[in-house]
Structures are given as structure tokens and as C-alpha cells.
Design a protein that fits this description.
- The complex is a heterodimer.
- By secondary structure, chain A is of the alpha+beta class.
- Chain A has two domains: 80 residues, Sandwich (Immunoglobulin-like); 101 residues, no CATH class.
- Chain A is built from five helices and twelve strands.
- Chain A is elongated, with a radius of gyration of 27 Å.
- By secondary structure, chain B is of the alpha+beta class.
- Chain B has two domains: 102 residues, Carboxypeptidase-like, regulatory domain (Immunoglobulin-like, Sandwich); 69 residues, no CATH class.
- Chain B is built from four helices and eleven strands; from the N terminus they run αβββββββααβββαβ.
- A four-stranded antiparallel sheet of chain B has the order 3-2-5-6, with no helix packed on it. In chain B, strands 8-9-10-11 form a four-stranded mixed sheet, covered by helices on one side. In chain B, strands 4-1-7 form a three-stranded mixed sheet.
- The longest helix of chain B has 29 residues.
- The radius of gyration of chain B is 27 Å and the shape is flat.
- The chains are: A alpha+beta, B alpha+beta.
- At the A-B interface, α1 and α5 of A face α1 and α4 of B.
Chain lengths: 217, 208
């Protein structure tokens, strides 16, 4: 009888132990993700992502995990996700990669403006931008043609090329690049001096996509 | 009865140990380890890593960013931010500099610390070079030169960032410089990821 009881207790203890371990693993396999929006017309869709194979942006299409239409905190299995904010009005589609591991994560959805919106803004800002460049470097309008350039983000970054007017000069006619940032209502030159190539290590505070955009104009 | 009680107790203890092992190993396996090796002189310098006193040597830590503070009377306090990734070993060597007359010739008088200071400088140089090469794989391909050395892409000390390395382009013509930027792109690198200095170029935008 005692032997039977011992076996029963042992069996139950093992079941209990395995259950506790499984429960522990289950409850620790989730993590919290907070999503908030810069504008209330935006929404987000969460998709699982393959890790680090470069196909993340393509692999999410078939398996929506959750759709979020307002600031919200969701609890998801640990792993890598793509948070997609579809294009809405003047805002571009954005994809944000989130890795949920040991700590809570948050995503702030603040998409860039569409190219059309940025082009419209550029028309309005063009004079102020040229004035700011000339104020900083008085010889630029004399020596260079300021190209139309491009606005980035939500119109707060601008990059353009400066094309040397005297193309017969074989030694100094390099095309230069310059980036400006809108600070309040005024434009300020963010890369001083204008350069042939703008470096991310020299300007770590300027978003990479703006510097890449400037270098590829 | 007693023997069953003992066996039951032993069984429960065993289960508890197994459970503890499973929990601890599952937690520790999710937290990769990293190592910070410190070598800070003079001796008797008070060294704190995130506020906790440590001695010179290897310290196992979880990956992350740490604040290292080294203080000793008569020497300038040094504060460093040290970031280590999973499975990475990071060396931090500091030879504190004097800030009082009493210690102004410390490294002259103390031969042992002088030798250590030289070793620290050498280790820091090696680590810096290794980090730069890892961060900038282009550096491993340089220098390259053309036109009997008249045109070249090499590396050298940055004129804008202390103790940092820049890509140095030597070429006096506009077309040549443009070709060399293209060469960097053709190797699969983004020129914007590097600081590039053009030795033969005078920027007209800066002329008065």
C-alpha cells in the first residue's frame, strides 16, 4: 500500500513538475508591444517576420497577427515582427521591424510624407532654403547652381547638390552636397561645409536615409 | 514507513533541484554573456563598473552598456561608457593622468606603471584598429593606387575626429575624384558610411 502510495505521489509530483515547467515556459514566451500613432488617421498591422534573411518585408503578407487602429498595447509571442502602417492620406507606408525578447518594446508610428506631399511643400519652401544657403555661404550663389533638391521625412530635412558653374575648371568643378534642417520656421545648414560626399560618421544626428538621399542625388 | 518518508523527501528534493536547474538554465541561456577586461593604473585606483567596485582583470557581464569610473587622488577622474555585445570581449585600458604636483612625475618615478602604461597604449591602439577594421571592411582593402602612385585611396588619421580613421583620397582632378567615389561604390561600399578626405581638393565654397 505504502509502495503504491509512493509511486502515486511520485507520478503526481512528476506531472505537477512538468506542468509547472510548461506553464512557466508558456507564460514567459510572451512579451508586450505598445503601439502609438503620430496622427489619428493612421493604423498598424502586425505580421511575423523571418529573422535576418532580408526577406522580412516580403514574408509578412499572408499572416496578419493583429490590426491596431489606435494607441494600444498588445501581448505577443516572443519573436520578430513587422509593424506595417499602410499609406494613408499624405503619409507613406512604413515598415518597422521589432524584436520582442526580454524587454517590453514600443513603436511610434510617424510615417514620412508621400513624395507628392513633399514636392508640394518644396515649392513653398524653396525660396527660404536658397536664402538660408546663401546666408551661410555667400559665394555659393556666385559659384554654384543650386539644384532643385529634395525634401525628406515630414519635410523637415532638405538635401541638394551644388553644381559648379565653371565646368571648364578641371580641378575644382566637383558637385557638392548640402543638407538643411528646418528648425521651427527657419532653415539651417546642417552639413558644414558642403562636401563631395556627406558622411554619416561626421553627422550622426542626421538620419541615414537623408544622407544616403543626398549622396545619391 | 520511515524509509518511504525519506525516499519521498529525497524524491521531492531531487525534483526541486531539477526544477531549479531547468529554470536557472533557461534564464541563463536567454542571457548571453560578455566580458569586460579592465587594466587601469596607477594601482589602488578606485574602479567602479555601474557603481560596483571592481579590480583589474576579466569581468563576466551581460551584454549592454556600462559606465566605468576610475578615480584616484592626485589624478584626473576618467569616466567611460563601455558597450559589449553578446559573446564579445572588450578591453578597457586607462592610465590616469596627473592633476596635481605631487603626482606630476608619477610615470617617470614608477617604472612598473610606466611599462604598464606603454602596454595599455599599445593594447588600446590594437583594439581601436581592430574595431575600425571590423566596422569598416573597406579599410581592409586599402590602400590602392593608380597612375604610379599619383592617384590613391588609403586610410589615415581623421582631421575632424580625434583618434579616428578616415579614407584619404589623393587625386587632383574633378573627374578623377568622381571615378574614385565610383570605385568605392563598385566594391560594394556606401561612401556615405565613411569619412572621406580629399587631400588635393580646395573647397571653393569656403573661399572668401
Amino acid at each position: 500500500m505504502n509502495k503504491k502510495r509512493f509511486i502515486t505521489y511520485g507520478f503526481l509530483s512528476t506531472i505537477l513538475f512538468v506542468s509547472v515547467v510548461l506553464a512557466f515556459n508558456y507564460f514567459t514566451s510572451f512579451q508586450t508591444l505598445s503601439i502609438s500613432f503620430a496622427h489619428n488617421s493612421l493604423k498598424a498591422e502586425i505580421y511575423p517576420a523571418n529573422s535576418g534573411d532580408g526577406a522580412d518585408e516580403l514574408s509578412y503578407i499572408h499572416s496578419l497577427v493583429e490590426s491596431v487602429g489606435e494607441d494600444k498595447t498588445v501581448r505577443l509571442k516572443k519573436g520578430t515582427y513587422i509593424v506595417k502602417s499602410p499609406q494613408s492620406g499624405d503619409y507613406k507606408e512604413t515598415l518597422t521591424r521589432v524584436v520582442l525578447e526580454s524587454s517590453k518594446e514600443s513603436v511610434f508610428i510617424q510615417p514620412d510624407y508621400t513624395d507628392q506631399k513633399l514636392n508640394n511643400l518644396l515649392t513653398q519652401e524653396s525660396t527660404a532654403i536658397h536664402t538660408a544657403i546663401a546666408a551661410k555661404y555667400r559665394r555659393i550663389p556666385e559659384l554654384y547652381t543650386i539644384s532643385q533638391g529634395k525634401l525628406f521625412g515630414q519635410g523637415e530635412w532638405y538635401a541638394t547638390t551644388l553644381v559648379y558653374k565653371n565646368q571648364a575648371d578641371l580641378y575644382q568643378s566637383d558637385t557638392l552636397r548640402i543638407i538643411l534642417h528646418k528648425d521651427g520656421d527657419s532653415w539651417k545648414v546642417a552639413t558644414t561645409p558642403p562636401e563631395i560626399i556627406i558622411s554619416k560618421v561626421i553627422y550622426p544626428d542626421i538620419p541615414s536615409f537623408v544622407i544616403d538621399g543626398a549622396n545619391n542625388l | 514507513m520511515d524509509i518511504y518518508k525519506k525516499r519521498t523527501t529525497g524524491f521531492i528534493v531531487l525534483l526541486t533541484l531539477i526544477f531549479g536547474y531547468v529554470v536557472v538554465s533557461s534564464i541563463s541561456s536567454s542571457r548571453h554573456s560578455a566580458t569586460i577586461t579592465t587594466e587601469i593604473i596607477p594601482s589602488n585606483t578606485t574602479v567602479k563598473l555601474n557603481g560596483k567596485g571592481i579590480r583589474n582583470g576579466k569581468h563576466k557581464v551581460t551584454p549592454g552598456t556600462y559606465k566605468l569610473l576610475a578615480t584616484r587622488e592626485g589624478f584626473k577622474t576618467e569616466e567611460r561608457e563601455v558597450t559589449v555585445r553578446a559573446d564579445e570581449e572588450r578591453y578597457v585600458g586607462i592610465a590616469l593622468q596627473s592633476n596635481s604636483e605631487d603626482t606630476s612625475d608619477w610615470y617617470t618615478k614608477n617604472k612598473s606603471d610606466r611599462i604598464k602604461a606603454e602596454g595599455i597604449a599599445s593594447n588600446n591602439f590594437d583594439q581601436n584598429n581592430s574595431e575600425q577594421a571590423q566596422l569598416n571592411p573597406l579599410f581592409q582593402q586599402l590602400p590602392v593606387s593608380w597612375n604610379h602612385g599619383m592617384t590613391s585611396i588609403g586610410i589615415g588619421p581623421s582631421s575632424r575626429r580625434e583618434n579616428q580613421t578616415a579614407v584619404i583620397i589623393q587625386e587632383d582632378s574633378t573627374v578623377g575624384r568622381s571615378s574614385l567615389i565610383k570605385w568605392i561604390r563598385d566594391q560594394g561600399y556606401n561612401p556615405g558610411d565613411y569619412e572621406i578626405e580629399f587631400t588635393d581638393y580646395i573647397n571653393p565654397a569656403l573661399e572668401d
